[in-house]
Amino acid sequence: MSSGPSILCGAGVVVGAADHAAIAARHFGDARDAREALVGFGDEWLSRKGRRADHAALVRLLIGEAAHFPDAARAWSDNGSELVLKDLAAHLRTLADRGLLEIGPGAEETAAGHYVALVRSPANGLTFFGALPLPDQERLAVVRSGVDAFLRIHGPGRG
């Protein structure tokens, strides 16, 4: 019986991770300005285009049922949120290698965690993980605030 939720979550994870990768590639690929790239990425990632309703519904369902279906929660994490974090970390490493961010060797996953905590987490709280809309101006304010805090930690000359 536990394979059902894992299969369902697996399908949602693949779509969510692919969406994230496409958004990241658009904003980080040729970035010359870290703030502009990080704000653009965060704004699209948190927009209706980047926060698909079906994906958000699966996340909320999984949060509520993780204790009953721990294998599904692990599969989701291993094949979704962890992949997204690793992809974001790779893009942050590229920005650091260009001199746009200050991230120590091997610390890109920690930096990605900081970005998610400062940008995505406040939006999750305001929208109950995508259940409620976040007006465009409010979303952009959340993203800018999170990015500015992130740059106070990882901006050039901080390390």
Task: Describe the structure in your own words.
With 159 residues, this protein is an all-alpha fold. It contains six helices and no strands. It is globular, with a radius of gyration of 16 Å. The termini are far apart. Mean pLDDT is 86; it is low at 1-15.
List keywords for this structure.
159 residues, mainly alpha, 75% helix, 0% strand, globular, disordered N terminus
Largest sheet: none
Structural class: mainly alpha
List unreliable stretches of 5+ residues: 1-15
Number of helices: 6
If you compute it from the alpha carbons, what radius of gyration comes out, rounded to the nearest whole angstrom?
A: 16 Å
Q: What percent strand?
A: under 5%
- Ends: how far apart? 49 Å
- The helix fraction, in percent, is over 70%
- Shape descriptor: globular
Indicate the mean pLDDT.
86
N-to-C SSE string, H for helix and E for strand: HHHHHH
Number of strands: 0
Summary?
The protein is an all-alpha fold. Helices cover 75% and strands 0% of the residues.
Secondary-structure map with pairings?
Layout: H1 3-28, H2 34-46, H3 53-65, H4 70-97, H5 108-127, H6 136-154
